Amino acid sequence: MTALTAFLWAVAMLVDVHHCIHSSSEIHTIIVNLSSKNLSFVPGNLLPSSEALDLSQNNIHKLRHEDFKVTTRLRFLNLSWNVLEEIDPETFHPTPLLESLDLSHNRLQNLSDQRFLLVAQNLTFLDLTFNLFQTMTLGENFCRLKKLERLGLGANTIRVEDFLNITNVHLQTLTLLLENLTAYESGGLRGIQAEKVRIGLTNKPTDRHLIADALLMFDEVELMGMNLKGKSRYLVELLKERAAVKTSHLYLTDIVILWWQLTNTVNAVLQSPISQLSISDVTIDMPPYHDTLPDQSHTKLFSARRAVVSSFLFSLEALCNFFINMHAEHLAITETSIIHMTCPKWPSKVRQLDFSDCALTDTVFSSVEQHVTVECTTLNEVEILVLRGNNLKNLQTLSKRVQHMSSLSHLDLSLNSLIYNDQVCHWPLRIVHLNLSSNGLSESVFSCLPNSTVILDLQNNQITNVPETLLALGSLLALDLSANRLRDLPVCTGFPHLIYLLLRENSLHAPSVSVLETCPVLKVLDASLNPFTCTCALRNFRDLGAGNGLGGRSPRIQLLHWPLRYRCSYPDDWKKSTLEAFNIPEIACNISLLAAAILCPAVAIILVIMTLCQQLDIPWYLGMIWQWARAKHRARTQQVRPEDLEGVVFHAFVSYSQHDADWIKGQLLPNLEGSGGGLHICRHERDFIPGKTIVENIIRCVERSRRCVFVLSGNFVRSEWCHYELYFASHQQLSRGSDSVILVLLEPLPQYMIPSKYYQLKAMMSRHTYLEWPQDRGKQRLFWANLRAALQADLPTAPVREMED
Q: CA nearest 224: which of 253, 247, 203?
């Protein structure tokens, strides 16, 4: 894989992976699991909509023609680990869509007479391994399987022309599990059209001819279950016969081998036409104590997966030196518990190194000479280095380990325990793709990044923010900060050419969309699966998802996975609702608009009320009603002692100017003493006793009246006798209380019109509420009601008139 190819692949993985996710989310396969149910036959109540059916590990002996009559949509069927002996030829007639059929580990006996295949012509996968087939002779029914891609078989003997009926079937993979193979006729694999053949070996003499045919006939060969601990050298001998090898990719799986045999086998492969060697699940006996260097070769790929050693006493350096010094373009040792990898002894031609899921530490590729750490300088041509899933701890130390890899463009340090301690980092100059995901890095990591980085993967770390003052990453195009602790969108000051920004699964509540104005060329943003708070602050971000851009000032930004993966987490009313459905009126978020909406109607209502009050004289009515209510309340609550009313025979003494006598006689007396009033009123014209002085009469009338009513007017303040009456009433007020004086304003009486000697009147008018005589006849009834309520009382005795008017 070239650096350019790796770069394009990385961009696709970072940005376009959502298409795959979206597509897979639309696949709804209905799976029925009836495995391990101790069934002796296929149930008759299967769901007609079943697409995948698992009947493995039961006791089914026979398949009948009606067993799958209702499952017309069936595509995947697993009948492995049963006791099947017979299959009706019409069994799969109702299932024309069947693609995958697993009949392994059963008791079928004749490969040449499997007539059920005639109605299963859409099969792409068929597994018939571990049955009771004596011969590998395939019947003519197999030639109908034109769509077959993967086929698994097993038998006791293989002869020439056994595979004649699949000559026209182009397989991707043919699996031959031959644990009971007793005879193999050389050339028995002839006629098979398969890209890859997988052979489970018996470790018997028959293996040599079988392997020889496989290496001669197939491009990819996988040999499984080999035990090379003996002195058998046939594999090495076959590999050295270059003319007898057509295979380009050899797989050795589940093998047990001595170290010297492994090195001989690998060296033989390196000298053969085989360009790719993959070893997996290998157990190495008698590991080395001394260096064993590989031969020169032009091998493209060597990979070892899940390798273990059976001894604890060996030289790890010698073992590592053998592999790291291989002349292969792609070297991979994965899922193997090695804690160190050495540096090649001479300039290496390796372009891709993969040490994923091992146990490597920060000392990788380095050595110690005289207590001084020596860095590796012989991996100059490495373009892709993968150290994912190891025990790497210090990012700054790792930068020193790779600083001399001048061609390095793709570096994967994910799934480690990396931290950064603010030390100077030393990266090579050509790194374009850096994967630091799933570590323990904080925001300080932005001070330890290669300037040349184009794609940066920092997902699943401990980053809370992106510092604005950071080392400029002018080449950065794609940044993945998913699964961190970000609370807001990052500022793009340090990477002005950023195009792709991924922020899935952070702590974004209300992202500040204005921050995106610092990202002038940003095209794709993924902020899905965040705990959004659906309030006014989120409206701009929602508008961004709706395709409204940034208020027309920036190009439209695509939000990946919008709208289904953008949901509210707060408040409860909007919880789990999509942001697209979330809506708050403009008026609820605009304070000025809200204030205007409230104040304008309020001002209008106030103006209307004031106008109505002015027109209808409502304040006067309210004042009069208030006075009436107070008078009624006072009458109910005030406790008047009988001795207080001793000698009182009048409800009120009326003091007025003689010039206002007409109003008294025409208005006041009829309304208070008439049938509607029933009050006893004392007035000087009628109730003064002749022969007594005026002062004596005034004092006598004031003392015999419960209230004193003063009818105020301009005439009143000019009357000397009215002044005397007011004077005596004010003294009487001190003994009877403040409510013994009632002021009636017959006409407007400004303060400046009241003479200074009427200071008591001024004081009363400032302290007491007075009744104003309304000129409007409609208001006069309320006026008299208030006055009557203020004067009403139960007197002990009625007045005896000593003199008629």
A: 253
